[in-house]
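Quick one: examine this chain and its backbone structure tokens and tell me how the chain folds. Here goes:
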Amino acid sequence: MSEKSTNENQLKSDAIMGFVDLMIQALDSGFVEINNPTLAEIHRVAESHIKDNYNIQVGSIIDRHGNDLAMECGSLDLRSIDDDGLLMSDKELDDLLVDANYELTNASNFLRGASLDPQIPKGVKEAFASKINDLEEINNKIIGVLYKKGLV
């Protein structure tokens, strides 16, 4: 093997391992919570890795493979597809996040109020408490996005 192809192969190898190391570090740091990414999630990590490290835009999974295959690969990119399969604008996404924040807050408050009823069994109250925590965790993520966008 020539020196040029050995160096080229080393560069390719280093790039691939850098990408895999990035995913492992994301899991280790808590940025990613589960160790079973979808193909869409792997594509998104690769897209960001390439942009951050090589300043190259490769396009989203939808741009490269279309809506149907992107959905089959596990894409949940809310910026991309609405209920009718149409692209959503950033404004529509912002409105959706604000609405979701409002509805999650109301649902959490409803469950909290209902759990105060003395006639509700302890097991049901515990289930309510668990669901309240789930709703608030999701809502806090939405609030973080809204805050970063300057919408709250």
The CA atoms of residues 37 and 80 lie 19 Å apart. The helical segments are 3-29, 39-54, 61-72, 90-114, 122-148.
